Amino acid sequence: MIKDKQKQLNQLQVLFDGIVIALAYFLAWYFAIKNPIFPEGHGVLSPKVYFTALLPLIPGYLILYWIFGLYHPMRTMRMKNVLFRIIQANSVGLLISASLFFAFRKSGYFEHFSTKVLFYNYLGNICLNTLERYGLRRFLATLRKKGFNQKHLILVGFSAVSNRFIDACKRNPDWGYTIYGIVDDFAEKGESYRGVSVIGKIKELGDFLAQNTIDEIAITLPLAAYEKLPGIVAVCEKSGVHTKFLPDYQEIIHSKPIAEDLDGLPVINIRNVPLTDPFNAFVKRLMDIFGALVGIILFGPLMLLVALLIRLDSSGPIIFKQERVGRHNLPFQMYKFRSMRVQTVEEEKKGWTVKGDPRVTWIGKIIRKTSIDELPQFFNVLRGDMSLIGPRPERTQFVEQFKEQIPRYMIKHQVRPGMTGWAQVNGFRGDTSIEGRIRCDLWYIENWSLSLDIRILFLTLWKGFINKNAY
Q1: Is 304's pLDDT higher than 90?
Q2: Which listed residue, of 59, 66, 268, 454, carries a Cα 20 to 30 Å from 42's Cα?
């Protein structure tokens, strides 16, 4: 029955999408051709030509929506993920349609086809599809909160993971999940958590499924009971009821894992690192190269002035090179303006710089306080040793110390270190908590996005370069 409802909902969604695609295209034609916002150079083709092009566009976009998963059940999907899929599908649609119109332009029929129509259609599709799906989600959420369009579940296993699942369902009533009860071999019948009770033993699961209308089964066994899993799956498969498995890994894996398919073999990665995706890494690298070049051009005169002042202030090299640990635990030479008198390697390794440190020169105090001493790292970014945004790199001896003292410290080396990062814009600069810095670094690694990098850049500029913890 639940499958029939989902099929009907998908059919309704396809119908709405077709109407929205046609409406967006009509509005694009109207504002680009019929009543143009920018009248100069608008198309001269007849409406018949433009609306003939709509015939393949509607099924083409519907296919793209299907490819990008917009017709999968979205009961528990966040709206921002839906929006991302809508943008992806429409971006691909824009590229394909523009390429086809360009290829057939010489045929004469589409020779003067307005590119404004395609662009306006792109924007209109994204906006209208987002509004359509948001409205439908709110409508269904209202129905579910009132007890309609519910999915009835049985949980197999009374455990920490079953409690977390119940908590999630209670927090999100718009999911429309009604938990019938829990079957478990270790808990007593009647024992409950937040109003969801144990209704029997696991061996009784088949009887409960036969006697009640259950839409889904959620296997929430604790790790200690995993030997029962084959028998439970066999009962679930025999009943024909949709079954989901919620692995109990929270005590082992302290992060959000990501699943993948390895030639038919299901694999759970214990940490989601978006920058391991080649496309994400390529986009970030392009941003680094562009940003480093802009930084060198923009701050070039300031760097020349600082170099001159360092030369006049004390003898020694202008650029200070120090070994730091980078991506994949590989050491590299990080560049900074020299802010201290020249020291031996042994003196450098003595420890952190402290307030009133006699080793710091007068110009060194200024450039350290204002973070100007970090500007030569733009060249590290160009070389590929560093990124504009990422966890700050640490010296080798401190890495050896921290990896023994701080859990998950070495995970930060799965990405390129950065000139600034999420930890720095959250106040962890200079002599501050290493544990707090690592928490921020790990969050950044698991939640990376291009928009997050841009946000950190703006926060770095907004909060300024003055570091009260730099001595």
Answers
A1: yes
A2: 59
